[in-house]
Amino acid sequence: MNEPTAHRPVPVDIHHPTPITGTHTAPLVPVQPDTVPTVASIVLPDGRIVTGYAIEPTKTAPATAKPAVSRTALNVALGGIGFLAVSCGLLMLTTFIAALAALIQQLIILAAVIFGGWIAVQVLGNRDTSGGTTVNIRKAVIKRNHFHR
Fold first, then answer.
1. What is the pLDDT of residues 17-50, one digit of tens each?
2. Which residues contact 147 (CB under 8 A, 6 or more apart)?
């Protein structure tokens, strides 16, 4: 079997800055910068520390994002949804009107049956309780074309 081998670090060249030597003709005046740059330090895997100024990325002007769906297509789709809702509402309204008309028709038929039954009982009901005079024909006698009781 293969034995694991240790990875050796790659040699890195380290450059040290050399100060600029020379005579200055103008005296150095310390000037405070407008903004203090941020300093970042990074620890490398071999333990060395690298320090430097962080560079801010340039900010570009935000581009106007184009919508995925055009405005016209969106309006057409919304119009279709609205038309569907109105159509369903009208269908439900006509169904409700038809059901209401059927209910009224059934109530009229029921009232006619009940009223007709009441009239039939009044006309064809028991005549003994009618309160009029009852004549028994068998006992009646007719003399000289005149009816006698």
1. 776 676 656 666 666 666 666 777 788 888 888 8
2. 140
Place of tokens 């009239």: 119
Nearest to 51 by CA among 65, 68, 64, 38: 38
Does the predicted TM-score (pTM) go above 0.85? no
Taking Cα atoms as reference points, which of 41, 52, 47 lies closest to residue 15? Answer: 52
Torsion on CA atoms 24, 29, 34, 35, rounded to nearest 10: 70
pLDDT digits (tens, 9 = 90+) for 109-137: 999 999 999 888 888 876 555 555 665 55
Interatomic CA distance for residues 33 and 53, integer angstroms: 14
Q: Angle 143-146-149 (CA atoms, 0-180°, nearest 5)?
A: 80
